[in-house]
Specification:
140 residues, 30% strand, Pilus assembly protein CpaE, three-stranded antiparallel β-sheet, elongated, single chain
């Protein structure tokens, strides 16, 4: 699963979250540190209001929590979501001999770049952050 440090970096880089079923998130609160939630029509639903999106907790499954503003939640994008965001730049995901994950990307015909991390989601995040950085600074 994606580290919260990389999730924060992706958010700071401008990654927009449009909550949908299957999305995972954490609540930005010391009291809830380490608790990962998943949006599901059965437990946590995203409700759209004029004032913004609210994540509603149904039933008693999630303690006494009724809802939390989207701004108070931090999205933890899944591997497939980040792979989709990498689009045509994505070449492969592999495991190195030391057990780490490597994401290979190519941008604008330039040499492929490898991003390595202990978790596949973090390798995807590093590649995505580099892609955003390249797009804003015009380099790869």
């Amino acid at each position: 699963m994606l580290s919260t440090d990389n999730a924060v970096a992706l958010e700071a880089a401008g990654l927009q979250w449009h909550p949908r079923a299957g999305d995972r998130f954490v609540i930005r609160s010391a009291d809830m540190a380490g608790e990962v939630f998943t949006i599901s029509e059965m437990v946590v639903e995203a409700h759209e209001y004029e004032t913004g999106t609210v994540l509603g907790f149904n039933g008693t499954t999630e303690w006494a929590l009724d809802s939390v503003r989207q701004e108070d939640a931090l999205w933890l994008p899944r591997e497939d979501q980040m792979r989709e965001l990498l689009g045509g730049t994505f070449r492969s995901l592999a495991r190195s001999t030391d057990g780490r994950y490597q994401v290979l990307v190519e941008v604008s015909g330039r040499p492929e770049r490898v991003f390595t991390a202990d978790d596949a989601a973090d390798a995807y995040a590093e590649a995505l952050l580099a892609l955003v950085s390249a797009a804003t600074s015009h380099e790869v």
